[in-house]
Specification:
The structure holds two protein chains of two kinds. Chain A is about 60% helix and about 5% strand. Chain A is mainly α. In chain A, strand 1 and strand 2 form a beta hairpin. In chain A, helix 4 runs antiparallel to helix 8 and helix 5 runs antiparallel to helix 9. The mean pLDDT of chain A is about 95. Chain B is an all-alpha fold. Helix content of chain B is about 60%, strand content about 0%. Chain B has 13 helices and no strands. Chain B is globular. Classes of the chains: A mainly alpha, B mainly alpha. Chains A and B meet through helix 1, helix 3, helix 4, helix 5 and helix 7 of A and helix 1, helix 2, helix 3, helix 4 and helix 5 of B.
């Protein structure tokens, strides 16, 4: 159309219809796929054995400003609840103390996952070639910043308003002392960002988010609420509204590689490895946090696990991907066995190493022991009687001179760390699936607790060289390690971690630990 | 009572459960230090909310300066490359966690600003269209400059946006990572705003092409954006050092090329051609430029250039990077000069003397804000002369 004609037409159109006109987000988004162009150097900086298709679409078609509008509305609702009504009813001081302690760990460790997911989705944004697919990952980059801030806000809120700020106020500095940290880094940090870009996507989006965020972010809100915590549901359910888009990103990652020949060769192996990587930590740790980190129970962890992991994810979600050749992981069967006992095994060890935490742990009460036995027949004979013995020996009392780790040593039950997952296990005293395997490589011994991790290590030992806490602390006295890791409260002597949450119980100090003279040793050296 | 709670009973509101909880809660708080991250050194007098929510979320070991963790990575890349490493950049720092967004924007504050801008954009466009402003735009300016060349400039913004992906993956600090993602999002927002303006015009002006075909042709094959395209491609995909990507993009390319095109061409000239629509969008882009400048000058000048241990080395490296990227940026501007041949000349506005004044403004700004702080020597007159040689 000639220019002068166009101007006249614009004038005529306005005269005929002067209604206000704007531009919607979708009207802009529909051009996004054309935003890129080809050039010689256009390739990803992060190699992948898969080829992601150039025409992959995203399911949630957001532009930058519409994304901001959507999130801002959610933020207003969430922070309004936290800062207004929940503060006015003093909600943080009406949470059961056991759950107050659990949130020190859950919120901070989830923050690490969210934080690393910023980098992970940055890598995927780089790796994808289709602008819409890049846009989907970009939205997730921003979401993960949001979630990092939100998780921090939970600790910030509990520190400012709650009954025991220690651990909430300095988790980022003290979290690295104990035995749960390195395993958490494997699943929530390095597993998301170090490897083939698509393999990382499978870890993050296809397994971490599609499988474990349901128990971690949704089920946890029921446990929180039952134990008086309304802050966590307020924040976590707002987080979960974004997770749907992340699961869709994972789905689209698979769609983008579905026609690539490499997918038929490698995808199911990568999925199996990713599932085992994630479940190896989350299955025991989530079960432990829920059941042992609460007073009021919602349901046995094994039921939650079966519903979310086995049926919803392993069956329905993976089933939807079946048309792309995706199969349920072979390791799902072994994981199902772990869902019953592994969290009980882990709590036994975590409690034994309680001084290295940044939270208080509690032994099960009589009524809780009854609940465990009713839901996990055989629990008392394996675990309950040990806790009774520890309690009888004064494990909660600073003057007793007894740390439960001594029980493991006295009874010749060495605790090892799995080299691949970094999860501690005691092969001679457990009901879960862990068995000890020891291999030597480059003059160094490595312990493993299962065949799946061992296989990963045998394929690529150079990826799993990280020293564990026993190697790191070997020969060092426990109170020195705690002091060096800032595991004390603001008085400079009382430990952040404690072996009880009794309101009238005495609190342990560095001196109490020093008197026991507990020195770390590496169990692999004894083999 | 049973400790198994079913049916959605809530501990905060259920009297029976609440009674058990309150009996277990300590009579007084067990800890008096209530400030999260109390151990950190704040940028200002006190630790602010941004610092509480963002700082030290990066879980790097202490051999990456600033990190609080210890030991090795629990899983590495195939072949053993570490998750994050000091070798990912030539820059050196005694604390990679030292950077602060001068506006202290964490996610909620960032999206709140942008959401307000979106709502205001919608209201503005409705008022603009209803008022019939579009009739006043010079047809050549509208159909050729906005239709083709502003559209082509959208690809510049989109390319620079993509340059942030590997920065977001590789950088070594939490506040760095969050800032990089946000300034990256602002760049794609710029590209989207340009397309929004073109879509808007297509609704008001029958026959105005909404499609990106011609702009893409101009960007990929035309001579006006040739230098800019090659520059952006190399920042995006040929540069692996995440600091160099940020430095070349935000300390050289965008403050010179981007500033000239946005501020001195589209925004300054548009009103002379009856266009008061484009400045609305460019002003938002200029706000983002200003915020980004605050962020990147904090990264490169306040933190790296003033680093007690590595400041001298870092400034030397930045000068070397300036030597590498400045000539290419000048060349991009030189190519861009061809655009003046496509518009009706207005004396004192779009003629050579006016262009020269505009170029001096841009280079003087760059000298003051970017070159002087790293003691980089430049000859503005020579640079302007080189650029002007591109005028047809």
């Amino acid at each position: 159309m000639a220019i002068s004609t166009a101007t006249k037409a614009a004038t005529d159109a306005l005269a005929a219809n002067p209604a206000p006109v704007s531009v919607g987000a979708q009207e802009v988004h529909r051009w996004m796929q054309s935003f890129t162009w080809d050039f010689d150097k256009n390739r990803t900086k992060y190699s992948t054995k898969y080829k992601m298709a150039n025409d992959t679409k995203e399911q949630f078609k957001l532009i930058a400003k519409e994304y901001a509008r959507m999130e801002s509305v959610k933020d207003e609702r969430q922070f309004g609840s936290l800062q207004d009504v929940l503060t006015r009813v003093d909600a943080a001081n009406r949470v059961h103390p056991k759950w107050n302690e659990s949130m020190k760990v859950i919120s901070n460790f989830l923050e690490v996952g969210e934080y690393n997911a910023i980098a992970a989705t940055g890598m995927l944004w780089d790796s994808a070639t289709a602008p819409e697919q890049k846009n989907g990952y970009l939205g997730q980059v921003l979401d993960e910043i949001r979630h990092t801030n939100q998780c921090a806000y939970i600790n910030y809120y509990f520190a400012k308003q709650g009954q025991d700020a220690a651990g909430h106020n300095d988790a980022r500095r003290t979290r690295a002392i104990g035995p749960l940290w390195k395993g958490m880094k494997r699943v929530f940090s390095d597993g998301f960002i170090s490897g083939d870009a698509v393999e990382c996507s499978i870890n993050l989006q296809l397994v971490g988010e599609a499988c474990f965020t349901n128990p971690l972010i949704v089920a946890v809100t029921e446990w929180a609420s039952a134990n008086g915590d309304e802050m966590t549901p307020t924040v976590f359910l707002s987080i979960e509204t974004d997770e749907l888009r992340h699961m869709a990103n994972g789905y689209q990652t698979v769609v983008s590689i579905a026609n690539d020949e490499a997918a038929s060769k490698y995808l199911n192996t990568d999925l199996n490895n990713a599932f085992w990587t994630q479940q190896k930590y989350f299955t025991p740790v989530l079960g432990m946090m829920f059941e042992y980190g609460s007073h009021f129970k919602v349901e046995p962890w094994v039921k939650t696990w079966n519903r979310w992991v086995y049926e919803d994810w392993g069956g329905i979600w993976i089933g939807r991907l079946g048309k792309y050749g995706v199969e349920s992981p072979l390791s799902l069967r072994d994981a199902k066995k772990d869902a019953y006992w592994a969290h009980h095994d882990l709590f036994l060890i975590a409690y034994a190493l309680w001084p290295t935490g940044f939270f208080r742990l509690s032994l099960p009460t009589a009524e809780e022991a009854e609940w465990y036995e009713a839901n996990y027949p055989g629990w008392y004979d394996m675990y309950g009687k040990v806790y009774d013995e520890w309690r009888a020996r004064g494990c909660e009392d600073p003057s007793s001179g007894f740390l439960p780790i001594q029980w493991f040593i006295e009874n010749n039950h060495p605790i090892y760390i799995d080299r691949v997952s970094q999860v501690p296990f005691c092969p001679s005293y457990c009901k879960g699936e862990s068995t000890l395997r020891v291999l030597e490589y480059n003059g160094k011994k490595h312990s493993f607790s299962d065949q799946w991790g061992e296989r990963m290590w045998l394929s690529e030992p150079e990826r799993y060289e990280c020293q564990n806490i026993f190697e790191q602390y070997e020969g060092r006295e426990l109170s020195d390690v705690i002091a060096e890791g800032f595991g004390v409260r603001s008085d400079g002597k009382t430990l952040i971690s404690q072996p009880h949450t009794n309101k009238d119980g005495k609190l342990w100090t560095l001196d109490d630990i020093k008197r026991i003279n507990c020195v770390f040793s590496d169990p692999l050296k004894a083999l | 009572m049973s400790i198994e709670v079913n049916g959605g009973r809530r501990g905060l509101t259920d009297p029976e459960i609440a009674a058990v909880i309150m009996a277990a809660v300590p009579d007084k708080p067990l800890e008096t230090q209530r400030k999260m991250n109390y151990f950190m050194k704040p940028r200002g007098k006190r630790i602010n909310e941004y610092e509480v929510l963002c700082c030290y979320s990066q879980p790097t070991p202490d051999w990456i300066p600033g990190g609080l963790d210890w030991g090795d990575w629990t899983q590495k890349f195939h072949g053993g490359r570490p998750s994050w490493s000091n070798e990912s950049t030539e820059m050196r720092s005694s604390d990679w966690l030292a950077h602060r967004d001068p506006a202290f924007r964490w996610h909620a504050l960032y999206v709140k600003d942008k959401a307000e801008e979106w709502r205001y954009t919608d209201r503005f466009l409705k008022a603009y269209s209803a008022d019939g402003h579009v009739r006043s735009i010079d047809p050549v300016w509208r159909d050729e400059v906005l239709g083709d060349y502003l559209g082509a400039f959208g690809f510049y913004e989109y390319g620079l946006f993509n340059a942030h992906s590997s920065v977001v993956r590789d950088c070594l600090g939490d506040t760095l990572r969050m800032s990089s993602a946000m300034i990256g999002l602002d760049k794609v927002d710029n590209a989207q705003m340009i397309q929004a303006e073109r879509t808007f015009l297509s609704k008001l002006v029958p026959g105005f092409p909404e499609s990106t075909d011609i702009p893409k042709q101009e960007w990929t094959k035309g001579s006006i954006f040739k230098g800019a395209r090659e520059l952006v491609q190399d920042i995006w995909q040929a540069t692996y050092d995440w600091n160099e990507i940020l430095f070349s993009g935000h300390m050289i390319c965008d403050p010179i090329f981007g500033q000239f095109v946005r501020r001195e061409f589209f925004m300054r000239l548009s009103s002379y051609y009856g266009d008061n629509l484009t400045p609305f969008f460019i002003n938002q882009m200029q706000l983002y430029f200003s915020q980004t400048k605050g962020i990147t000058t904090d990264m490169f000048h306040t933190c790296l250039g003033a680093d007690v241990e590595f400041g001298d080395y870092n400034n030397r490296l930045m000068r070397a990077w300036a030597n590498k990227w400045l000539p290419r940026t000048v060349n991009a501007l030189k190519d861009f000069m061809e655009i003046y041949a496509t518009i009706p000349e207005i004396k004192g506005v779009s003629d050579k003397p006016a262009i020269e004044v505009a170029l001096v403004r841009v280079f003087d700004d760059w000298k003051r804000d970017f070159a002087d702080p790293i003691n980089y020597k430049m000859d503005t007159a020579a640079l302007v002369k080189t650029v002007l040689s591109g005028l047809k």
